[in-house]
Each structure stands twice: as C-alpha cells, then as structure tokens.
Design a protein that fits this description.
The chain is mostly beta strands. The protein is built from 1 helix and 10 strands, in the order αββββββββββ.
Length: 149
C-alpha cells in the first residue's frame, strides 16, 4: 500500500509539472528594447520557473516615464497574465490561446485592452493590445534584443 501511495503521489506531482510545462513561453524571456524619436521602451521577462514568469516594462516619452509590472502564472490552476501598470490597479487576463511562439490573453470585462497578444518573429518581439476585436482600436509594439549595457 505504501508503494502504491508513493507511486500515486509521483504521478500527481509529475502531472502538475507537465501541465505547467505544456505552455512554454521561454521564447518571451530576455531584454527587449525599442526606440523612436518619440518613445523609448524596454520590456524585460524572466524565464519561467515554478510555473511563473515575471516581467516589467519602462516607457519614456516627452510626457514622462511609465512602468508596468507583469506576471504570467502557468501553475496551480492558473493560466493568466496579470498586469500592474503605474498608477493603476492590477488587472487579470485569462489565457485564450497559445502556439509555439505566440500567446493571447483576454479579459472581456476590462475597459481597454480586452485582449493582449505576444508573438515572436525571429529576433523581434511583438505585442498587440486591442478591444477584443479585429477593428481599428488597437496598438502594436515591436522590440528587438537590447544591446548589452
């Protein structure tokens, strides 16, 4: 009976670890930068460990500096993106779909955005935020790997 209990425990533990690993977002990890005449933007993501990815962004404009702390939870039943932008309250978006190098999160109850999508093309990272539909109310971000400090 003891052997059966241990085997059952290992099966359950392995099953939970595999569930978090099914969604591999490590292609998002790293330091990403973008610069134009109007905006300088950085987005930094830590690799997933324990079913959790942590990220942050900083945007500098002529109006000032904004920041955002984010996390992607992929374990303990969680499959969500949680954003905490500067000066605002935390908002949660549920995983909608994912692929080898793309992921989409949605929150139909949020004012804007209702949908957040990240994808990777070669050495470029993209994000699109929109109102949950393929209409004119959207914004796309593009980053390349940041140069070494």
């Amino acid at each position: 009976m003891k052997v059966l209990s241990i085997a059952l425990f290992l099966l359950i533990a392995f099953g939970h670890a595999r569930a978090a690993d099914e969604i591999n977002l490590d292609w998002l990890a790293g330091a990403w930068c973008s610069q134009s005449a109007q905006v300088t933007s950085e987005e930094h993501w830590m690799r997933s460990k324990g079913g959790l990815m942590l990220g942050m962004s900083r945007t500098l404009t002529k109006r000032g500096t904004e920041f955002e702390f984010v996390r992607i939870e992929l374990s303990n039943g969680g499959r969500r993106f949680v954003a905490l932008p500067s000066g605002q309250t935390e908002t949660t978006f549920q995983l909608s779909k994912f692929g080898a190098r793309s992921v989409t999160f949605v929150n139909p109850e949020h004012d804007f955005p209702k949908r957040i999508r990240y994808w990777r093309e070669g050495d470029r990272l993209f994000a699109r935020i929109d109102a949950g539909a393929d209409d004119a109310n959207f914004r796309v971000f593009e980053w390349a790997r940041c140069p070494p400090d």
